[in-house]
Structure formats: C-alpha cells, structure tokens
Amino acid sequence: MGFYFVDTELYHRHKEAVLAMSQAIQINYPEHLPPEKRQPGFSDRQIAEKLGLEERVVREIRCVAEREFYPVDEWERALEFKDRACKGFAENGVAFSTKKYIDRAKAAKASIKG
Amino acid sequence: MHARLPDRPGRKKAQVSASAELELMQAHRRELDEVARKSGALVTGVADANAFTAAMEGQRPTDLLPDCKTVFVLGGAQPRAGDWKSPSYRHMETTSTSDRVTAMGNRVAQHIERKCGYYAVTIPPGVDRARRPFLNIALAAELAGCGSPSLAGPVLHPEHGFMYYTAVLTTLPLPVDGPLAEPVCPAPECVSMWNEAGTTPCMATCPIDEGGCLGGRIEDGRLKERRYDVARCTTRVHTTFIPGFQKALEAVFDEPEKEKRKMILYSTQFTRTLWSMSYSNVSQGQCFECMRVCPVGSKQRSLR
User: Fold this and answer.
1) Which of A45, A100, A104 sits opposite B57 (nearest CB)?
2) Which residues of chain B make contact with A63, given a CB cutoff of 8 A?
3) B211 and A77: CB-CB below 8 Å?
4) Residues of B in contact with A89 (CB under 8 A)
C-alpha cells in the first residue's frame, strides 16, 4: 500500500467482501430487533484478520468502496428528489407522497369487489 | 484519578453505604438533568456503558473511555416547526446541524469533571479517520430510553419525534434508564396506513423499490423488517458535503477539456458544496424528507 492509497488490484479483489463484512452498503438493517439480538458488522481489524490483510488496507478499501458505490448521477438525483419532496409537502402535506399508494389500494379493492 | 482533577465526593464512594450511594447517584442525575435543561436539552437519559453489544467494535463507550460506567445522553436542537413547513429544502440543510446539541453535551461533561470529580468525554459529532462515528450515538439514545429506532433510521422520541442527540461518556456511576418498553415506530397512523395501503409516510416518500432508500414490513403493529439503502441515503444526506465534494472532484479530474472543468468548478453545485464544507466541524444532515412526513412529534410541529 502506498502512502495515500491502496493498490487498485488489491482494491478490486477485496472490495465486495469488505463491504459485505462491514455492513457498509447493507440493505437489511436489524434495528427493529432488541439491541441484544442485533449483530453488528465487523470492524476493519476483524475483517483484516479474516482476509489476511493489514487493517489500514481494509480501512482504505472500505472507505473508497463506500464512496464509489453510486455514480455522480445519483447525487444529481438527490437534488431533484429533495426539491420535489419538500415542495410537494409544503403544498399538499403528507398526501403528496401517500396519495398514489392509497388510491392504488382503493382501486385494487374496488376491482376485487367488481 | 488524574492528578489535575480535584478530590471530590465521587472518589469516596467506597466509603458510603449502598443506599447512600444510590442517593448520591440520584443526586448527581438531578444535577446533570438541570445542567442539561438549562443548556437547552429537551430530553436526557442514561445508558449502561456495558450494554452496547449491538455496536461495532471500536464504537463502544469503553473503546473511548476504558473505565466508562455510564453514558449520559442529551437530545434536542430540533428544527423549528416553521423549518419543516418551508418549501425550500436548502433552508434546513444549512440550519440543522449537530453543533448545538454537542455544545450542550460539553457543558454536562464540564460539570461532571469540575463538580463531581469524575472523567467525562463528549462524543465529537464527526467521524474518525476510518469514516466511522466515534460512538453509535443512535444506539446510546436508544439504550438511554430517549427514544427508539425508526424504520427511517433516526431515533424518535415518543412525544417530540426527531431530534439531535449527543452522548457524554463518564466514569460517574448514575442510575440507568434503559431502553423504552414500547417502540415509538411504527406510530398508530402508520400502522393504519400500512393496513390500508401497504406503505407508511416515510416509505412512500423515499421508496427503496422506486429509487429511494426505505422499505420494510409491519406485522401485528410492529416492524418486522427494515430495508435501508445507506449508500443512496448518503447521496441525499451529504449531497453538498464532503462526500459530494469528492464526487465533484472526481468528475473534474475525469474531464479532459479545460473549459468543461471550469464549468464544473464554478458551478452552483460545486460552490454550494464548498459553502457546506465550511461547516465541516459539525455533522450536517441535508435530507429531512422521511422525517418531514413522520407523524411522531407532528403535534409539536403544528402551529398557527
């Protein structure tokens, strides 16, 4: 590993495993479980032990992989999303977001009755 | 005991009986509550330092203060009711930060060391070199009974809903509150909506299956599953903060044409990012859309 960065080949070889073990890009989060039943992600030190890497190498791989995960377009979409959601709420309240789901559910019920 | 810390009554705890010790702990708690409230805290709670089993290694109280006994949590510094009504999301990007609640924590920490004679560490709001928080503050708030985790993520107080939290680690023994008996999320309104339409206000606002961050399932009035795209949430919460800056810089380096590079560097987005980063000693949340629609605490936000 160089002073500032991890070798790119090493990065590409291990990034998926590091992300998975650290729970950094996780989709299923267990916060609805009581704290004593939750399993936290592995620390960089623990991942390093499992993969046979240095802790600082794992740390670099994880930090780069987290940032790389979504392309810059997703950041552009973030601006659009926030603008739309915030203005929509100011004008129509919660219904701005929920109405289409409620209407969809009502239509589904009506079609079952019909 | 550090040589520079004065000899205070807390050091003589071994000499007092169990009931006197409990009384002393309760008296300390009352003192700290008062300091917290005077500093502007809306809620306080105490967690057992050894209860952080759900925290990742390195993010537990004893990782930062090895003899830590308790964690004193303060909550408050909420956005104003008017802030939530604004049609400009950029307003809350700028006004809502963790700096005020951290300042409250610092006052409590100072009181613990100066008046009680025990070590105290305020958790800094930023991240360490590994981009990890110094402590899982959300878990601290939960274990201290200040609220419970929501499907959207933030710990919600039963009455006030969303707020900022800070935590003070201390060697001072205090009576522990422990987690709430009943979870705050899902709220009754959300259970009704789930039963009717299969969604909740937060999930409808930011649906994970339609390019958003949140998903989940409710069964018998309780959360049974939570899906959260943390990477996408980062693009929304830190759009014009350090992560956004890194993405913009990457785009600049990738752009071979000098004129186009200038367009990126002088753009509104890059400029806004630099303004945001001038607040970089605090944690900035820049997306509030899932909390804007949350019914928990909405009564506090309904004014004339």
Assistant:
1) A45
2) 130-131
3) yes
4) 289, 292-293
What is the ipTM score, two decimals? 0.86
Same domain, A63 and A98: no
A to B CB pairs, distance under 8 Å:
147
Instruction: For residue range A19-64, list pLDDT tens digits in order.
Output: 999 887 766 667 778 888 888 889 999 999 999 999 999 999 999 9
Residue A34: give the domain boundaries: 8-68
Residues B28 and B150 in one domain: yes
- Neighbouring C-beta atoms of residue B17, cutoff 10 Å: 8
Domain extent, residue B271, equals: 242-277
Among the listed residues B275, B273, B279, B40, the one whose alpha carbon sits nearest the alpha carbon of residue B163? B40
Q: Which residue has the higher pLDDT, B12 or B118?
A: B118
Q: Give the mean model confidence (pLDDT) for residues B47-57.
A: 94
A102 touches chain B (CB under 8 A): yes
* pTM for this model (two decimals): 0.89
The per-residue pLDDT for range B95-117, each reduced to its tens digit, is: 888 889 999 999 999 999 999 99
Asked whether the beta carbons of residue A30 and residue B226 sit closer than 8 angstroms, the reply is yes
What is the pLDDT averaged over residues B187-210? 97
B142 and B247, same domain (yes or no): no
CA distance B8 to B31: 15
Number of helices (H) and strands (E), helices first, in chain A?
5, 0
**CA–CA–CA angle B97, B101, B105 (5° rounding):** 145
Contact check, Cβ <8 Å, A35/B142: yes
Q: Tell me phi and psi for residue B126, to 5 degrees.
A: -85, -155
Q: Flag whether residue B151 sits within 8 Å of chain A, measured between CB atoms.
A: yes
